[in-house]
Design goal:
The protein is mostly beta strands and 89 residues long. The protein is built from one helix and four strands.
Length: 89
């Protein structure tokens, strides 16, 4: 997730990072029962409850990354790596 640091409107693509305060981890939570109740395919509603989009608590500023357009993300559960990816592949 990105943390917006100032108002961004009609900004040139190469200037967007100047308005970003930093990046933080976020989690997409979905209530599977809500997702499949009638009418079917409630994908948006099933993600809209309070506490369903936790993020943080740490934030890294953009200048901490060599290339903020290519950040590696690694997830661990205890000592086991369960996910690895990049923001740009």
């Amino acid at each position: 997730m990105i943390v917006i640091g100032r108002t961004l409107r009609a900004v040139a693509p190469e200037a967007v990072w100047e308005g970003i305060a930093g990046v933080t981890a976020g989690q997409d939570v979905t209530d599977r029962r809500e997702q499949w109740r009638k009418p079917l395919n409630q994908f948006t509603l099933a993600k809209c409850y309070d506490t369903f989009s936790p993020c943080g608590p740490l934030m890294a500023t953009v200048d901490e990354f060599e290339d903020p357009d290519d950040i590696e993300i690694v997830g661990h559960v205890d000592d086991l790596e369960v996910q690895r990816g990049r923001t740009w592949t």
